[in-house]
Amino acid sequence: MKLSAAAWLAATLIITPATAFAAGSHSGGHEDGQSAKADADDHHGEMAIGSPGKASEVARTIRISMKETDSGAMVFEPASIDVKRGETIRFSITNDGVLEHEFVMDASPEIAEHKDLMRRFPEMMHDDENAVRLEPGDDGEILWRFTNTGSFEFACLIPGHYEMGMHGPLTVN
Length: 173
Known about the structure:
There is one protein chain. The chain is α+β, with helices and mostly antiparallel strands. The protein has helices at residues 5-23, 108-120; strands at 51-52, 60-68, 74-77, 81-83, 88-95, 101-106, 131-134, 139-145, 150-155, 167-172. The protein has one domain (48-172): Cupredoxins -  blue copper proteins (Immunoglobulin-like), CATH 2.60.40.420. Helix content is 18%, strand content 32%. Strands 1-8-5-2-3 form a 5-stranded mixed β-sheet, with no helix packed on it. A 5-stranded mixed β-sheet has the order 4-10-9-6-7, covered by helices on one side. Strand 2 (60-68) and strand 3 (74-77) form a beta hairpin. It starts with a helix and ends with a strand.
């Protein structure tokens, strides 16, 4: 049976969240209920970048500002983030701009995939623990435990925002 492109896309969007949830990847739930209890060396059910953190384990807070500049660029302050493996961070995120923005952190291939999906479906809403979307003047937070070393990325994936400079490196040492 041959599927049209629209039918294939619809089927993919219906199946992907369930598959992603089972795999613990970006598009679905990031925890299977057990991974938060898992030892630091047991990464089952976690994303490459880590897993949702617990407030009782927060080591420090990193304040993130999302905004537009007078020159028209869209930026995060700070422009880069460095954390240590095993560290649980509270990201205190504020939208200091006049446009809606989001803060999403993940491995670069997943950021690129999510960015493409957002381009195709700009009104798509998320319920991901590694992301927060904020209206102008709003604030939010993400608690995150970084379990793997490596180079990752944070970005605003609202169409056009990444291209206007709204992304940066997140390094886990």
